[in-house]
Amino acid sequence: MKGALKDLTFNHYGLAVKQDKEALTMLEALGYTPGERIHDKLQNVYVRLCTAPGQPTIEIVQPGDEGKSPVDSIISKYNELIYHACYETPDLGKTLESIEATGLRCMTLSERKPAVLFGGRHVSFYRILGWGILELLERN
Fold first, then answer.
1. Can you list the alpha helix ranges (DSSP code H) found in 90-138?
2. Cα 119 from chain centroid?
3. Which residues does residue 46 pair with via DSSP β-bridges, in sequence order?
4. Which of 4, 11, 45, 127 could make a disulfide contact with 98, Cβ separation 3.0–4.6 Å?
5. For the chain, what is the mean pLDDT?
């Protein structure tokens, strides 16, 4: 199924951290500019996009203050880890059908919900066996 997912556009890598001080120091040393730290209550995380010309965008993700967070299990094993890749999709249903048509096993980790960091655009998370965690960000 070569090219089955060619409509997807890379958006960012997700970096889970317990504390963001060292991550920000490293990213700034690499020439990144950190964005505003935002609390996303629906996902119970603090998030911040960091950008640099000619480099992939990095989303720093920290656990929220209100119970279980989707990065808890990651940071319980590692203090920090790049753990997901995010791609924008023009059509979530079609993308999920295309993933299935490739023969890849796709498990839903987090159902579709609005993301504060992306102005309310919907995101959802999937584990692709043999590849890792995929975040799908819906285009408007």
1. 92-101
2. 15
3. 39, 62
4. 4
5. 95
| Separation CA 134–CA 79 (nearest Å) | 21
Q: Which residues contact 131 (CB under 8 A, 6 or more apart)?
A: 104
Segments of the chain assigned E as strands = 9-17, 33-34, 38-40, 45-51, 58-63, 80-89, 106-114, 122-128, 132-138
* pTM given for the model: 0.94
User: Pick from 86, 91, 98, 83: which is nearest to 132 by CA?
Assistant: 83
- Tens-place pLDDT, residues 71-127: 999 999 998 999 999 999 999 999 999 999 999 999 999 999 999 999 999 999 999
- Is residue 88 within 8 A of residue 5, CB to CB? The reply is no
The secondary structure of residue 60, as a DSSP letter, is E
Q: Give dist(CA 72, CA 58) in Å, integer.
A: 19
For 30-68, the pLDDT digits (tens) are 999 999 999 999 999 999 999 999 999 999 999 998 889
How far is the C-alpha of 109 from the C-alpha of 124, rounded, in Å?
A: 8
